[in-house]
């Protein structure tokens, strides 16, 4: 039995949820999201709560049960509050700027790196902090990961792109050998 899967999801008063045969639609003040459901998982609304349950027993039903419950919970939270990830650029001469719907990163390469941002996600740059926000948690996380992947922070000086609050474990550089 899935610990997460059996918890019901509260529906806030300003959110509407529709369940069609193979997908769920969640609409709230920030926008609307939809997710295709797997045939092993059933979803229904009881007493103002969303209940997720297994329909067919297969080898991975328990894992899908908890996963889909959490995905639906993230949809409800996304259309009410939204999600946000912050990245920090560290390094001399490293900078980022928005140009239309493209993020331009200058991070020590011979050329600027251009990342196109999807319509559903907003990106803002303030000094050395890049803020990625939107209603779809999966998409916000993927865009932030794509930005970080351009130049991950290296362990010797810590230069590169990292999440705000992330600790980079520093390595010690080469040491001069002592003269005998």
Which features would summarize this protein structure in a list?
four-stranded antiparallel beta sheet, 38% strand, 19% helix, single chain, alpha+beta, three-stranded antiparallel beta sheet, 180 residues
Could you explain the architecture of this structure?
- The chain is an alpha+beta fold.
- The protein contains 2 helices and 13 strands.
- It has helices at residues 61-80, 137-150; strands spanning 9-10, 16-19, 23-28, 31-36, 41-46, 49-54, 83-90, 95-99, 102-106, 113-116, 121-126, 129-134, 160-163.
- It has a 4-stranded antiparallel beta sheet with strand order 11-12-7-13, with helices on one face. It has a 3-stranded antiparallel beta sheet with strand order 1-6-5. It has a 3-stranded antiparallel beta sheet with strand order 2-3-4, covered by helices on one side.
- The termini are far apart.
Bin the helical content: 10-25%
Distance between the termini: 67 Å
How many extended strands? 13
Q: Report strand %.
A: 35-45%
Radius of gyration: 22 Å
Largest sheet: 4 strands, antiparallel
H and E order:
EEEEEEHEEEEEEHE
SS-derived structural category: alpha+beta
Estimate the mean pLDDT confidence.
92
Order of strands, widest sheet: 11-12-7-13
């Amino acid at each position: 039995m899935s610990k997460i899967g059996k918890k019901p999801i509260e529906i806030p008063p300003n959110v509407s949820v529709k369940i069609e045969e193979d997908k769920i639609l969640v609409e709230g003040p920030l926008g609307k999201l939809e997710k295709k459901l797997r045939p092993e998982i059933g979803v229904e609304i009881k007493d103002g709560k969303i209940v997720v349950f297994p329909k067919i027993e297969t080898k991975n039903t328990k894992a899908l049960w908890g996963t889909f419950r959490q995905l639906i919970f993230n949809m409800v939270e996304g259309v009410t509050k939204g999600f946000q990830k912050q990245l920090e650029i560290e390094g001399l001469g490293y900078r980022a700027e928005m140009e239309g719907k493209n993020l331009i990163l200058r991070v020590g390469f011979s050329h600027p790196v251009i990342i196109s941002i999807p319509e559903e996600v907003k990106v803002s740059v303030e000094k050395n902090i890049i803020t990625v926000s939107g209603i779809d948690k999966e998409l916000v996380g993927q865009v932030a990961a794509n930005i970080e992947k351009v130049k991950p922070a290296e362990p010797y000086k810590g230069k590169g792109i990292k999440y705000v609050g992330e600790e980079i474990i520093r390595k010690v550089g080469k040491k001069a050998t002592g003269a005998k």
